[in-house]
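Deadline looming. Please check this record:
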Amino acid sequence: MKHARCLLLTLAALLSASLAFAGGTITPAGELKIPKKEVTAKAKFYGYKVGNVQTEVLALRAPDGTIRTAFNTCQVCYDSGRGYYTQQGEYLVCNNCGNRFAARQVELIKGGCNPVPITRELKREDAEFIYIPKTIFEQARPLFLKWKK
């Protein structure tokens, strides 16, 4: 019994580490609230459901210390259902076409085979958290209709 419990705990730890899902919460106003202290150079992924459609935000800390955010879907490949990113070192890689995108450029580049940026004017911040409003997720919903992550 003790061995089985250890095995389950180990599997749970490995699964959570490999997915890099983070602990964002939803505020009473429906905003996604991301704790700045957990955002590092390794992309963290935050799920948000709009009706029956699952969306996802990626957040990472750039070399200049700023926190960058984007929807985890490719601006070109989203309609394939596989146009989302995984991180390989300093790059994000589109799982549909294989395009490599420098992680430090998240939120700075719009268009092409890149993550859909969530720029400063689309979110708000305080000393501890980043808040992404529900309306931004509602606008992005069409990008996730065929998502197969």
